[in-house]
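Give me structure tokens for this 231-residue protein.
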Amino acid sequence: MIKHIIFDCFGTLIDTGNNSLKAVEQILFNVGANVDAKEFYEDWKANKRQKMNTSVFLNEKTLFEISLSETFSKYGITADASKEVKTMICSLFAERFVFSDVHETLTKLAKENVDFAIGSTTDTDSLLYYLELNQLSFSYIYTSENMQVYKPNIKFYDTILHRSGWLAEECLFVGDSYTDDVLGPQKIGIKTVLLDRKALYKSTELAPQPDFVIHSLLELLKVMMCWRIQD
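Here you go.
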């Protein structure tokens, strides 16, 4: 029986919009680089992602700076990454709001006698900022920074179970990333729901499959009902 739901935050509950891309455009303008912003941003993200599971944990702000410096070098840009990264860090505290289906879903799920948690790859201060901004309240909040590990490292999910005292078979992980919110949790026996708002997921391409794929958070109510019938 599902007793606990662990939500990813950004892209799942909170719409990140295009603030990060705007920050990249501003950075490139600042340094006078005639570079495609989308291409640069994808390279920057990929570099940052590679550094997330090193032996020494670095918080997200530090990773942004290190990976920006290396991406500058890749594009032949001579600029001070420690200075320019501030534009991206500021974008992490821009106005980002919940998707329209979030409050209604959480209100209805609250009546189902389940615990809610956040399990997010982010620094703690930015997550708390957005939860307060959007009037979201969670009793259990787990970030990569406060656990010193990033998704999809299995330790991320193990630490949540250890700190909460929850059993894997009683948990459900809900998120918008196959790698972080499906593949990772399933490795330790947590059931998963992939939130595919843009209908981009193709079930024939990846294995293992999510337990459920939904396109609106409101569909999570039907998912919960299905599991209750099975139990």
